[in-house]
Amino acid sequence: MIYKSIVFFHFVMIFSIGILAQSENKTRGKILNKSDYEYLELLTNVIIDSSRIAPGQSVVDYFGPNNTGGVLIKPGGGGSYPSFWIRDYAMSLASGFISEEEQKHMLLLTASTQSDKTWITKNGSIVPFGAIADHVRIDDSLPIYFPGTFDFIEQGNKIFGVYPPYGDQYFFIQMAHYFVKTFSSNTILTAKINGIELMDRLEIAFNVPPSRLDNEIVFTTDGFRGIDFGFRDVITITGDLCYPSILKFRASNQLAELFDKRNNKVKAAKYRKIAKKIKSAIPLLFMNSNGMLRASTEKGNQPDVWATALAVYLKVLNEKDSNKASKALAESYKKGTLAYHGNIRHIVTSDDFNETTAWEFSLAKKDTYQNGAYWGTPTGWVCYAIAKTDFGLAQTLAKEYIDDLRKTDFRLGAENTGPYECFHPSGHKQNGLYMTTVTCPLAAFKSIDKLGR
């Protein structure tokens, strides 16, 4: 009964909010009205600030202070995730609220914790040469390459695979590319970290995730499994992998741009060729008849909302396939299977594996965390995708998202601790003051406005 009530409520909200959003924004062609934009920008700035760890500052009792010599930005405010997570930080850069000094410190820290040799953990997992940490401890700068722990010795217990997550290498490249592009600073690429230039470290990192020899698609097997993307590290996904291949596509183009700045046309062409191969392979390998991209080709090979929306957002798909994906997401939103209060599931409810789990293999219970809860992080990408075929519908989704932020805003006091990492109408909530819940949509909303009408 709960889902029937949610779907009915959803249709009412689409009708009423859609009329309001279109009447307010039709002439301006904006995804949000001015008031909502200003609210989101202010909230994002506040959340990022609450996520900063100043030098010498402690976050929780069981960790020492930040001894890295500069500001760190963790995944959110409060005591959750008391370390420096590479992906959450990298995903938040485009919000525009992180200074040059802060970016330089975290970029060089990430480079300094890159694995300079291949080694095997106490628990039998492998850390390959060039691997980028999943997260870095604030007190002693020790790199933790696997999810699920803060213990350098005990990391890699095989619960989360035996290979470090594949996405962090590409987020490292994104960090460097964004810094150079934003501050017009090419010199940082020649900076030597532990004797190796940053540009060389970027190339080494790029080649860490296992990839197909023919089409450059990232892939894994049960025996060498790594997490495809850290926002679903409790999910088992194997075979050819869609999401990290999308990240690799972007990283390829970013490396090409960096080599252009160094007048190295040969290497720039090399990485553009890799990006072109990935672009051609993704729809052939992963797109189903409805226009959705599947997460993989083996375990967990279900239609993947996040990957589909991100592929449209990063222009991985050609116009025909992009429009097909846009329509698929729009239809799911209209049916009430995609979103709740403007937040997005990894899988639409109608594509759940069965009645007991959303993903085929999950460490989390159904309708909690990454296995069926709703997240704000991808809302902007989904709005961007839907806007390609139905701008008014994208406005409606964006308005629902903003309205939920306003209702759960931690500044209201009482029991409010939003924005949440994820939640579910059954009552499940996880981690308040969560950064990518606001930083990622804000950046995407700005991109949507550039699309025009």
Quick overview of this protein structure:
The protein is mainly alpha-helical and 453 residues long. It has helices at 2-25, 34-51, 86-92, 100-112, 167-183, 198-206, 242-261, 265-286, 305-313, 319-335, 379-387, 391-408, 436-451; strands at 52-53, 72-73, 84-85, 119-120, 126-127, 135-136, 143-144, 192-193, 196-197, 219-220, 239-240, 339-340, 343-344, 374-375, 422-423, 429-430.
3D structure, described in words:
The protein has 453 residues and is mainly α. Helix content is 44%, strand content 7%. It has helices at residues 2-25, 34-51, 86-92, 100-112, 167-183, 198-206, 242-261, 265-286, 305-313, 319-335, 379-387, 391-408, 436-451; strands at residues 52-53, 72-73, 84-85, 119-120, 126-127, 135-136, 143-144, 192-193, 196-197, 219-220, 239-240, 339-340, 343-344, 374-375, 422-423, 429-430. It has a three-stranded antiparallel beta sheet with strand order 3-6-7. A hairpin with a 6-residue loop joins strand 6 (135-136) and strand 7. The relative contact order is 0.12. The model is unreliable at 1-9 and 15-28 (pLDDT under 50).
Instruction: Indicate how many domains the architecture comprises.
Output: 1
Q: Please write the CATH class name.
A: Mainly Alpha
Annotated CATH topology: Glycosyltransferase
Report mean pLDDT, rounded to a whole number: 94
Order of helices and strands: HHEEEHHEEEEHEEHEEHHHHEEEHHEEH
CATH architecture: Alpha/alpha barrel
Number of DSSP strand runs = 16
Based on secondary structure, the structural category is mainly alpha
User: Number of helical segments?
Assistant: 13
Provide the helix percentage: 40-55%
Biggest beta-sheet profile: 3 strands, antiparallel
Query: What integer value in Å does the Rg equal?
Result: 21 Å
Strand content: 5-15%
Q: Widest sheet: strand order?
A: 3-6-7
Report low-confidence residues grouped into runs of 5 or more.
1-9, 15-28
| Shape estimate | globular
Terminal Cα span: 39 Å
